[in-house]
Prior knowledge:
The complex is a heterodimer of chains A (420) and B (249).
Chain A: H1 2-30, H2 42-45, E1 51-53, E2 59-61, H3 66-71, H4 79-82, H5 105-113, H6 115-118, H7 127-131, H8 148-159, H9 162-167, H10 175-181, H11 183-189, H12 198-202, H13 222-226, H14 231-239, H15 241-247, H16 256-260, H17 277-289, H18 292-298, H19 304-310, H20 312-319, H21 327-331, H22 348-356, H23 365-368, H24 375-378, H25 382-412, H26 414-419
Antiparallel strand pairs in A: 1-2
Helix pairs in contact in A: 8-10, 10-11, 14-15, 17-19, 19-20
Chain B: E1 8-10, H1 14-38, H2 57-82, H3 84-93, H4 97-110, H5 125-149, H6 151-157, H7 160-191, H8 201-204, E2 206-208, H9 209-215, H10 217-229
Antiparallel strand pairs in B: 1-2
Amino acid sequence: xxxxxxxxxxxxxxxxxxxxxxxxxxxxxxxxxxxxxxxxxxxxxxxxxxxxxxxxxxxxxxxxxxxxxxxxxxxxxxxxxxxxxxxxxxxxxxxxxxxxxxxxxxxxxxxxxxxxxxxxxxxxxxxxxxxxxxxxxxxxxxxxxxxxxxxxxxxxxxxxxxxxxxxxxxxxxxxxxxxxxxxxxxxxxxxxxxxxxxxxxxxxxxxxxxxxxxxxxxxxxxxxxxxxxxxxxxxxxxxxxxxxxxxxxxxxxxxxxxxxxxxxxxxxxxxxxxxxxxxxxxxxxxxxxxxxxxxxxxxxxxxxxxxxxxxxxxxxxxxxxxxxxxxxxxxxxxxxxxxxxxxxxxxxxxxxxxxxxxxxxxxxxxxxxxxxxxxxxxxxxxxxxxxxxxxxxxxxxxxxxxxxxxxxxxxxxxxxxxxx
Amino acid sequence: xxxxxxxxxxxxxxxxxxxxxxxxxxxxxxxxxxxxxxxxxxxxxxxxxxxxxxxxxxxxxxxxxxxxxxxxxxxxxxxxxxxxxxxxxxxxxxxxxxxxxxxxxxxxxxxxxxxxxxxxxxxxxxxxxxxxxxxxxxxxxxxxxxxxxxxxxxxxxxxxxxxxxxxxxxxxxxxxxxxxxxxxxxxxxxxxxxxxxxxxxxxxxxxxxxxxxxxxxxxxxxxxxxxxxxxxxxxxxxxxxxxxxxxxx
Lengths: 420, 249
């Protein structure tokens, strides 16, 4: 807030200064003693062909489009407002970078603390790489390079550049592509300015590495980061069994991104989303709850996913019927709680309601029976006995039939077989 | 109705043949759509599941075929109990001590003893086994099937673990029935060297004298005796389908 006021005040003061400048110029033009304006940058920088080559021979344009400048938020600023080291024409080469920090002190400080600021090579972005230089527009202007609709492409300039990603060994290869296909990306590009964009989750000037405990992308900060927009869900999550484990510092317990992924977050109505009905049991919940290592570590039952897959619900889902119960239908999604918690959807007292979502009026019969039973757990139960009896019957009866008919076949072909 | 001097008996009436083929059709549909639920990733199942997201086709076809089979079963019960022909068949299907003797004799024959196979009556022990297995299977599958179909009602009456029981019975009885049809029934009407490629009796309803000789010798003897008793030519002539009617000249 303080820096906002500071920026506004400095901008007001500089606007006033520009007006003062303009008045002086007007006054000067009225007299004949003025042969030309004190500093006419456009006499060189208005030339579209003006370029400079660096040590590698790569040319950079020095053309400054005053029309673009006039449309920018810095319209009316004198060139020397930012390029304060120019004292005379021709000026020294090369010029020092524009000192944005003169007005934008907080942002500049944050940048130096960030992973971008600490990088020592020339690839790291400075103010101009993200905001532009002469054509910086107001943040609310949809043409601004840091506007929600543009930001992903601005960041993607480096982060989706295979050569740079390779060079700096950035783990995520093409977040731009993932993001533009994601629900956040599609919403942002469609004009929903409140949709999450790069800065929503990573910050803007103070982007920190994900293993920095202050980073918005830090594992244990993720619920809070997503909670900026998804507040209700974050509140539910924090009370859930997963949320409690996360708060305790467990790195195995999932945070938002473990189930939803990050750049490629998709609505669960999309077939390829990890949280779609088709995928939730195997891809999302199953990653931990069907893992030998994790179920062993946390004393969880191992066959949760396989028993679900073999149940009627699981079979119907595998057939393609997406309306049947999946993990979330019974256990909840963000409000998952253990069955001995009275708030849990699978607490015996709540089962009639939970199952009643699809099986209305089914009553109390649900409460008494366990589900997700493994074959071992069924031993001695009616189901196991019936299965045993039937398998015996099938082996004896069908086996007997096979023997009978094989003999019949041989007997009837005896004359033919002997001839051969 | 003779062909090349071959005489024929009417083994199955038209109504019975229609019953059989409707049964066969509904059975095959039930088996395919039923196992499609149990093995949803199998290649042969995929065409059936193409529209599953929007329209639960597999499930509806299965239930419709089930209703057809149950309706047919009730019709069949009526036919067997309330028509003279039906009662004849029912009596012919009744298991007897003779069947056990036939089984033992037939096994001896199959294991190499000379002579022929025993002379069977209207229905051999093989056919009786087939029929009663079918009755048993239909009853079990229909009951468990309806309990599973109307799960909300079932769950109101029975505890949840009973749903698992009904499911397991439905699955294993399906296996038993399907295997019995493939191994037992299909052998006797298709792969049996004596009738291969297909026993025609369920298509044209006829059985030749030669076939009768071979497969239902005891019945043929009884019919000839009856013909003799009526002092008519002891040649096998076109007979009415059931022995309660006099032989037709």
